[in-house]
Amino acid sequence: MPEIIEVEAYRRAICAVEGRRITAVHAPDEWFAKGGTTTDALRLELTGACIERVRRIGKLVIVDTDGPRLGLRFGMTGKIVVDGAMPIDHLLYDSPRHEPAWDRFGLEFTGGGAMVLRDPRRLGGVQLDPDEDALGPDALSLTLGQLRAALGGSTVVLKARLLDQRRVAGLGNLLIDEALWRAGLSPVREARSLDPKETARLHRHIRRTLALLSERGGSHTGDLQPARVRGGCCPRTGKPLRREQVGGRTTYWCPERQV
Question: Where are the domains of the chain?
């Protein structure tokens, strides 16, 4: 699924369209227009606009034009196609097929070329002028102080707090399970229960996990990942992993070493 590592790859690919002018907008699905945006507004406001810059905050890609800002969200199975090429052509919970009906949004440019958002499960979306202030600090540049602020005083369980994009932007299910497993911290502890040393350890392992899995090629490449199946065992202790819903997401963790 696209977490911050995959979405950063998408951002880099979309940078290829900087400087291009939009000649047509493909927006066939009203459901895919989010936050009060309509497909008519997408066509009206983006046609003729020139793309100036492509940015990212967490799992949101922001395309700045000389008109509105365009926000792209990818859900669980969204992928980007730029001029017929895909930086990532298959995701963990995605179909290997590519159906034209899955092209939920697209831009065509002066002189040729196109950008398409393809989403089999239709869980992503596009929005004009998204609220960037609603997102917390980006996980790739997260400081220890920002993590302390995100966790401090909260009675919410640790994993749910880290999943909250208003607190830390970009972390998802797989990355959080991997980072907490590496840090030896239980996902079901209250966020406020971490002492300063534990918070520093979690920060260190979030940064290391992001760096390592980026080098390996995706959020699905963690050491815990092969054991994230029913009956799976901890790669370090050999003890059975616990599987439960935490923060609304299927979570695997090792009670033997995560306390």
Answer: 4-133, 136-253
In this structure, are strands 51-57 and 60-65 parallel, antiparallel, or unpaired? Answer: antiparallel
| Burial class for 112, CB neighbours closer than 10 Å (0-12, 13-18, 19+) | exposed
* pLDDT tens digit sequence for 120-166: 999 999 999 999 999 999 999 999 999 999 999 999 999 999 999 99
b/e string for 225-241 if b means 16 or more Cβ within 10 A? Answer: bebbeeebebeeeeeeb
Nearest-5° Cα angle at 83, 119 to 36:
45
**Alpha carbon distance 29, 120 (integer Å):** 13
The catalytic residues are 2-3, 59, 249
Query: Of the CATH numbers 3.40.50.300, 2.170.130.10, 3.40.50.1970, 1.10.8.50, which one belongs to the domain with range 136-253?
Result: 1.10.8.50
Segment 85-126, tens digit of pLDDT:
999 877 776 667 788 899 999 999 999 999 999 999 999 999
Give the C-alpha separation, 130 to 75, whole Å: 16
